[in-house]
Amino acid sequence: MMESRNDGSRDLAQAVATLADRLPQPLTPLAELTFNYRWAWMAGGAELFGQIDPVLWRHSQCNPRELLESVSIRRLRELAGDATFVDRLNALASACKVDAQRPNPWQIPAEHPVAYFCAEFGFHGSMAVYSGGLGVLAGDILKTASDLALPLIGIGLFYRQGYFHQRIDVWGWQHEYWVDALFERLPVARVSGADGQPLSVVVKIRQRHVVVHIWRVDVGRTVLYLLDTDHELNHPVDRWITSRLYVGDRQTRLAQYALLGIGGVRALAAMGIQPSIVHLNEGHAALSSFERLRQKIAHGELYDEALANVQRETVFTTHTPVAAGNEGYYHHEVEPVLGELIDEMGIGRERFYDLGRVQPGNQNEATNITPLSLRTSRAAIGVSRRHGRVARSMWQALWPDRPVDEVPIGHVTNGVHVPTWMAPSMQALLGKHLGPDWRRRLAEPGFFDRIDDIPDAELWAVRCQLRQSLVEMARQKSIRDRLGRGENPGYVEAAASVFEPATLTIGFARRVATYKRLYLLSRLPDAGLLRLLSDNPTPIQLVLAGKAHPSDQEAKEDLRNRFQLKQSPEIPRRVVFLEDYDLQIAPTIVAGVDLWLNLPRPPLEASGTSGMKVTLNGGINLSVMDGWWAEAYDGENGWAIHSPEADAATQDDHDAEALLHLLEREVIPLFYQRDSNGLPHAWLQKVKRSMRTLIPQFSAERMVSEYVSKLYA
Questions:
Q1: Fewer CB atoms near the end CB (10 Å): N or C, the chain?
Q2: How many other CB atoms are found less than 10 A from the CB of residue 198?
Q3: Sequence ranges of the chain with CATH classification 3.40.50.2000
Q4: pLDDT, tens digit, for every residue of 9-49?
Q5: pLDDT by residue (tens digit) across 250-287?
């Protein structure tokens, strides 16, 4: 990717060689595949590793390095003698090599890539350095940059415990627990210097020198660097900085922001990487601008000149209008953690604080990571058209001489990585009818109109297969979850027959936050939810999943209230809550549901990408007109709730009534309207319209291409 002695490529090559030494010669290509996550979105990649030992594969969270270091030598020798397996392995390895050698078609040179800073990256379930939508989006961007041969690298933190795991007790209360990751069993390599010792940088936090190590992860052609403080050179408190994602302690979180922003810039310099653009994905890495400002001033630039140069190199994506996502820190909070770092900059403390204040000079105002990012960037965007308007209104005070419409915040609507989120069977169906090159033609005008020509019977067969897979997963996981909670035997037994493969399946799975309004399901008027779930010729079944932040007591209470629905007799067979929602179970859910509910309180949904993933698999959206759906809905490709501008209670009552009306009068009758062969033609016409209008428009390929044209150019 770039010429640098210390970029980790040598260390990764050594890790590959060490693993290859353990393998029989015909299987040595497995070592290179293991240390590059490109296999994860290639046809047959996961299946190849799964064939080695299905049980170990599942238990390792689909981690290929742990699998190969745990499987017996006897089994490896068996596979080495299996000509079919070896041929599949060689074909996959060859395809990866060809992919890596594609030329760079962009004006961004490989030796000066885009540096994409983010607090989390969700590119695969075996790497638990993500919590939800922000991280999964960042992971999709890494993969898409690889697909497009765009020179881009990621910079994040290597959390020892990652985000929490979730357990729900019999009363519905969420309990959190964390598990230490064994970095030595993951397909990563610690970056070393020319002397063979771990390459490190130092960041001064809490008046101590914190030593930061760097790890390299290859995600196709894209490299991700993760920073780590959990080693013996550091004070125990400082080792904890990279322990958990989104810790509740504000001082530790501030230390993480310093490590990501300041440490990330220093790590790139130590590796000899000089990015052409720094892309701040949310404000967590805002302090990277301070570090680059400090460096320029240290090299003799005056403050105004240095700031202008930092702005010229920086672009920023803001992701949320929710207050918790736009954190501010007061003087007394910043000083104990970062006071000495501020002094190193040489610009004066008030100037430092003012860059993050809406009103410079107001010492009673906190320094906020979002204004700081906006003030130090040449371009800023929201993540949907509507969110762009909301962000301009939110931050107009930073440009008091401009009307809201002229505030310099644009938008690039989010998209999703199609090969990751479209189920293999649906990909095969599109390949059959649209041609084997259909992925490369996503942006071709009118190309996806060919979806209308897919026979209804074939599309319905794939939809039924995907729903069947969800039913099987829901049954197995529900039994384990209910047994683990110590539920009564009858409720546990009901899990064995939970869901039916032919029933309309509705999904609501996302981060549990109050503004997402999961509670609307129990506010359907006239006991509407129980009526829909009851035994009748046109029933529904509901799959729920999601985590509430450990500090969000209101969201936890909402989750507990929804969980109490199990007391009704219809609930055990018709509703499941799947604990510990993560990248292992999300693909099965978004592929298997027929209808996806999205009920945020406007205008708090910045974008939302889960519904896009559902669309890839022939599911349909029913959503409040907020986030991406405000520009995606065309009147025929799903259903919409037009939420009124009113107080919260009035809005909730209106939206709950509208939801029940749509379900009873439109969604359910359409799904169960069948011909003599059992085919729901009208429903499938809506599926096809959804797919042909939304898949090209909301792909990550379109999104990243817009990054290049609107931000990086």
A1: C
A2: 18
A3: 418-689
A4: 999 999 999 999 999 999 999 999 999 999 999 999 999 99
A5: 999 999 999 999 999 999 999 999 999 999 999 999 99
